[in-house]
Amino acid sequence: MAAALADRFSAWLDKRIPPASSITLTQAKIFIFPTKVGFAFSALLVLMVLLAINNQSSLVYGIAFVLGSMFLVTILHTFRNLSGLRLEFQSARPGFVGEDIEFVVRLVRLQGRGREGIQLSWPNGIPQWGGVFSREADSVRLYVRAQERGWLNPGRLLIEIFFPLGLLRAWTWVDLDARALVYPRPEFMPLPSASSGRRDEGVLIDPRDSEDFTDIREYVPGDPIKHVIWRSFARTGGRDMVVKRYASYVEPRLWFDFNQVPGSVEERLFRMTGYALQATRAEREFGLVMPGKRYEPGIGDTHLEAVLRTLALHGLEKNGLENP
Amino acid sequence: MSLAVPLGAAQAGGILQIPCNSLALLMIAQAVVVLPHMMQLSPWIIAVCLLCGVWRTRVYQGKSAYPSRGAKAMLVVLGTIGAFASGAGPLSLEVFVSMVVIAFALKLVEMNSRRDAFLVIFLCYFIIAAEFLFDQSLGIAVYQVFTTVVVTAAMIGLNQMHTDTRPLDSARLAGGLVLQAIPLAVVLFLFFPRRMPLWSMPLPGNASTGLAESMTPGDIATLTQSGEPAFRVQFDGPTPQYRDLYWRAVVYSDFREGTWRLMPPIREEAQFDVAPEAEPVSYDVLMHPTSRPWLYSLDVPVELDGRITLLADFRLESEHPVTSTYRYRLRSVLAHQRGEALSPAMYQRETRLPEGDNPRMIAFAKTLHEKSGSVERFAMALMQHIRSEAYAYTLSPQTLPAANSVDTFWFDTRRGFCAHYAGAFVYAMRAAGIPARLVGGYLGGEVNPIGGYLMVRQYDAQGWAEVWIEGQGWVRYDPTAAVAPERIESGPAEALSAEDRSNFSLLAAARLDAESITGQVLQMFDSMEHRWNLFVVGYDGNIQKRLLGDWFGDVSATRIGLIMVGFGAVCFGVIAFFLFFRRRSVAIHPGVVLLTPFSRFVSRYGFALQPGELPEAWLRRIGDAVGFEADANKALSNGIEAMLYGDAAVDDRQLRRLLRRLRWKVALSFR
Question: Does residue B409 share a domain with residue B277?
Fold first, then answer.
């Protein structure tokens, strides 16, 4: 029942304040209702009027009426404090599951005097002050805890004020069409060993454990003593000390293959996210093999972002749920 | 930048440090609310208040902790004991006020959440209202409007961004709110139905001066004269002669142990005849609260509204004790005869004397009565006795013993004020078997030249005698006339010796001297006070009915309700118009708004913006020319540049300040 009501309400709200990346608040979009304090204040006024009646005191009537009228006038102030403000979705920074995702919302005072006590929050989020009293605009950072990978839609943004007296709450929910990409929670495991590659592709030299002789060069302190060519040393009477060098060409690029990573689909995504991050930190090129998709090896933030995006949206786009 | 403050919890009444802005205003509000009671408080309570203020400030600064639970309990117990110990009686007003103030101060130390703060604010509002029960004067009303603004400012502070500390701005907004509320409040004040009390709730008596249920002349060594107003009277026609202005209030019929007391009324009809050709006097009385039911009237009131009863002894009584300023209208006929026959109960009451008291007076009265022959001649003889013997009128008589007090006064001390003479006179009458009683009230009053009304003050209080004369009914005799005729003819100022004058407070003395500047200023204030009392404080159900009837004819509840809503809507609409629609139709860039008046100002000094000159260059040029400090100049031009071309999100407060300083520089350099 409650859920059905909530659905109907949200549908009604969608019609009344349709989603847009920039919304200007007008009186029609603002809701207003007394707070608990407001009701307590009304009770206080009733008490005062009783006091006035019982003591036939004109001035007690007077103060009760002044306070009551102030309550009414506050309605106008509350409205004015919120109307004419524009909200724009500015940016969102992608993050991982379990992190607080940052959304930047810009609050702009188009005209009129300074506004006070404005609080912005996502559902279940922590409210933040929007300071447009002495400034024309304020960029407000709002955070949402990411629960699952994919596109995170924080829902409707709640803008509320209790200003000026705390007796009334004026609020509105706007859908700023804000979204942020949430990557899977990375799981860090040792990088899979690289396969040995062909000579022409190789970049990295691993002089320690290799068997392949490459060349010779002059001895440098620290070279293994068993690599010294003693024959040459003897021939030159100890003048030339040369060492044999061994090397193997290692395939320097990592390939992360979805089908070869153990675990369930989600676990594989966690691990591959971890691989991608580790490889980037180690400054190694890596490529990605996903079912029906292949990313040529690359390095750098752009590459990483593309890879993470694929991992984040894996299996979600097919459902037609999401399109960036 | 925004600051992360977990407000969700705060709104639900959770714990959150009250913002600095609001805390400062709350402390000021509390002080302002308590201030009118400062005189009633013992010094130690004021010390406790200051201490609590300092403590809470230290808590805010993080230097001290909130009091622990045990400490709080101990403070409450100590405060309660202290309040009771320092008050006059366990239920006196002083104790009540002390308790509230202590609770207030302790709450200040303890308060740490928004909920606490709201509680304190509501308490402040309630105390403001409650204070009107004790004093509804114009001065207090003006002060309380100020208090309301301060308390409201504290409330605004609670709902502002917590990093903002602008108490003055909050106060300005609060002032605006109160001001905008006033038109609506006036509509409510005029139209809201005034009802009679739902239940009676006695207030602690606060009439420190004025008449009481009993009077013991012998106890008073010095009758301190207070200039406090007792009531004001507006006559429809000319003010009657001074000697006719005997304002009746209390009748003391019972005498025991030197004390005259009011007795419960006899359930009889008050009988009187008025001279058919006599012109009745109509007047409005606006009386200050007495916490007692009696009302003031000139003999004999002939037309009364339903709320007022005329008792058998011609006293007027209202339905309820008068606990707030009360306005009523009377018609009196000054030429009259009161009473045709005396009922046995009345006779018994008005002739009774305690046995064995004052034997000398009884003997004296009996002899004199026999010598005189008639009641009237007897009364004349008594008056003549006072006149011819060495009696003196004074406000500082000797005290008298409870037993034989009349004897001591009449034969030994022979110095006293009205109550002594009138009391002895009544005693003598009763001693001779003639019904007589002592009447307490006021004599005369002073016509305010500005308002044209009669002002009766506490120092106009007077006691006189009433004697039953067969065929004439109750006849008034004022024995004070025999000893101090000036008092009766022209008021207290003339009857006083230099010594007596010192018993008047400074203000009261100035009032007596109507010719002086101070006297005139006081008259003017009093006239304002009278209007205030007449139109605002005295506005009640009857006047409302009359006024609304005059304006709108039919005064049915629905009609008046509709008119009230209509007027209210108009007020609301006007405020809404000024708040919402009086805006510029085109949004002007804030930079232009900022620079336009500045440009107009400096143009007068030859610093007009040149064609093609950039505003920031223009500002730099002016700054260099008048010797504006280099870094301030740079900050200003950079700020303006950022504002005009960059992000609009520039704090314009600092720019405003800098521009103002530059203006000064320009003005000073050309002086």
Answer: yes
The answer to whether residue B175 scores a pLDDT higher than 80 is: yes
Same structural domain for residues B364 and B462?
yes
- Among the partner-chain residues A74, A127, A134, the one whose CB lies closest to the CB of B653 is A134
Output the CA torsion sign for B654, B656, B658, B660.
negative
Return the bridge partners of B261, or none: B214, B254
Q: Are residues B281 and B413 in the same domain?
A: yes
Q: How far is A309 from chain B (nearest CA, A)?
A: 30
Contact with chain B for residue A73, Cβ under 8 A: yes
List of chain A residues with pLDDT < 70: 1, 193-214, 247-252, 317-324
Any idea which residue has 């004040």 for tokens?
B189
- The shortest CB-CB distance from B178 to any of A37, A51, A66 is to A66
Query: Could you give the number of structural domains in chain B?
Result: 4
Neighbours of B650 (CB within 10 A): 22
pLDDT at residue B164, rounded to an integer: 62
Tell me, yes or no, whether B215 lies in a domain.
no
Of A133, A135, A166, the CB nearest to B155: A166
Parallel/antiparallel/unpaired status of strands A286-290 and A254-257:
parallel
User: Residue A73 is inside which H or E element, if any?
Assistant: helix A58-82
Which tokens is A206 given? 């691993």
Per CB-CB distance under 8 Å, the chain A contacts of B324 are 55-58
Task: Determine, yes or no, domain membership for B206.
Answer: no
Q: In terms of residue numbers, what domain contains B555? A: 541-581
Whether residues B650 and A135 touch (CB distance < 8 A) is answered with yes
3-class secondary-structure state, position A103: strand
The minimum CA-CA distance between B459 and chain A, rounded to whole Å, is 26
Contact A112 B5 (CB under 8 A): no
ipTM over 0.85: no
Residue B452 shares a structural domain with residue B424: yes
Q: State pLDDT tens for residues B273-320.
A: 888 888 889 998 988 888 888 999 998 888 787 788 888 888 899 888
